[in-house]
Amino acid sequence: MSKAIRIHETGGPEVMQYVDVEVGEPGPGEARVRHHAVGLNYIDVYFRTGLYPQPLPAGLGMEGAGVVEAVGEGVSHVKVGDRVAYAGRPPGAYAQVRVMPAAFLVVLPDALSFEQGAAMMLQGMTAQYLLRRTYPVKAGDTILIHAAAGGVGLIACQWAKALGATVIGTVGSDAKAELAKANGCDHPIVYTRENFVERVKEITRGEGVPVVYDSIGKDTYIGSLDCLRPLGMMVSFGSASGPLDPINVPDLVSRGSLFFTRPTLFSYIAKRADLERTAQDLFDVVVDGKVKIEINQRYALADAAQAHRDLEGRKTTGSTILLP
Questions:
Q1: What are the residue boundaries of the Enoyl reductase (ER) domain, all occurrences included (predicted)?
Q2: Whether this model's pTM surpasses 0.85
């Protein structure tokens, strides 16, 4: 028997149960992975609360790193004994051992630890597609990143800085402002006491920014639009403060023909070639030292409920991992 987190109903952190599970053998296209570390992400909260529906009972967790114990028929890109990492559906990473679709697995370079792998796959590949594909950031751009001291935020700030951008970021406290600044954010804005729209306009001398990366959602949506220059792109990739209301198209028209997109990582890595390219780009910038993965919280897998409470209470910074 192995241990895992399961939910039988949606709700608060208390619905998560640490239970014994039977793992079994991998079927065609599957692999069995023994986790050394598991990533914690806000998408896990969405599944736990039911914002993202799934059949119950169910597991949680989209990201992990470990060693392949067995592979099923038709799996050739990984083999028994490989060090691997992944970010992908279905949820179920909150486990000591799991059987999962092998298509999401990539071999983890020897230069990277299991903890780094578990902490960076979902957040790091999210930063990759945001900065390299959704709106390709180039040298000389001035961009706005909300939640700049969060997991995606710290990676995106460093990566955007390495690309030659000037980075503006919103944070919730002075301590988070210092952390964001240490990770490439040129202009941290403490939104609890500063009007981020006014500050962005001040920093850009009234011009606005070409792109806003917004994982907050409802609370920042209109303000984010107001930070954009004409023909700018609003990239809404999360809903930490709640889902957006239906989009009012005139809001985009009146601000200068703005673009709006709601991307997800899983659309960008749906093809195996795209997954490999995205992961390799991430591995390269981390191994080269351009991006450092800040693992600022570690919890035992059995304490996943407390990890969720801290995440939702905005008590975490950078990446968080669960240790089986």
A1: 11-322
A2: yes
